[in-house]
Amino acid sequence: MLKIGCHLSFAKGFLNMGKEAVKIGANTFQFFTRSPRGGQAKELNLEDIAAYLNFAKEHEITQILAHAPYTLNSCAKEEGLRQFAYHTMCDDLERLEHIPEAMYNFHPGSHVKQGTEIGISYISDMLNKINEKGYSTMILLETMSGKGSEIGRNFQELREIINQVENSSHLGVCLDTCHIFDGGYDIVHGLEQVLEEFDKSIGLERLKAVHLNDSKNELGSHKDRHEKIGKGNIGLDAIASIINHPNLRNLPFYLETPNDLEGYQREIALLRKLYRENKSLD
User: Averaged over 160-165, what is the pLDDT?
Assistant: First the structure.
């Protein structure tokens, strides 16, 4: 069964996100833990979480994905910004302990002229400190498009972060289709080769989720502008190949396309039609 969802607003709580997901035909979803521009998270409502967990079980919603705010930069030059990233992630992960099977995704950050090596060192240092807290939630490094001084512009950079984390058992990767296409990985004409490179660099066992987006830009543009499914330079045929690939089809897919709920509902319905049900594979 295709695990497909989109980005929903956390403002109304977990139960309402679950209900919105079911309404549009989704069986998973992504949400920001707080404002995407940072700030304090809303107070945790344990009654809402309990009601959501019951609702999710009833409607087979699983593997929801929490997204860290965009302002989180764990390899910033200023120590204060790195501390903000650390404390924000700890707060988020503490909250996610109440949501079994939830995962936590974050952008590795931008080294801002310090150099990739220093940036990677800062990121892995933060993850090592977080590991000391003993959180159980799977943390995902997101693949990036390579604009500016972003870390994660290629699979090798993510591998180096993982190598420097002492206990990486709760560390995985979220593959963003728009980002890697913009980053120069040709998933339109060479999906098999891209996944082989991922496996050699990182290991497919660490691939835990996919941000499913088309791209407004051409291959290797090193930008980051998502497009609606089938309306961009990746295209519908390549998207269909991605969701049906044997190494990807059982992963959760999260839409981040420029849409409202009705638009997401149409895309989810389209993707379900394109998904080839195969009991021997699921």
Answer: 98
**Of residues 92, 76, 169, the one with CA closest to residue 125:** 76
Instruction: Tell me the per-residue pLDDT of 255-265, one tens digit each, with 9 for 90 and over.
Output: 999 999 999 99
pLDDT in tens, 29-74: 999 988 877 678 888 899 999 999 999 999 999 999 999 999 899 9
For 238, the token pair is: 């390549």
23 within 8 A of 55, measured Cβ to Cβ: no
Q: Tell me the C-alpha to C-alpha distance, in Å, between residue 120 and each of 14, 32, 81, 82, 153.
A: 33, 24, 15, 13, 12
Please give the pLDDT value at position 282. 45
Residue % of the chain over a pLDDT of 70: 98
Contact 155, 197 (CB under 8 A): yes
C-beta atoms surrounding 36 within 10 Å? 14
With a cut of 60, say whether residue 280 has pLDDT above it: no
Q: Residues 108, 150: contact at Cβ < 8 Å?
A: yes
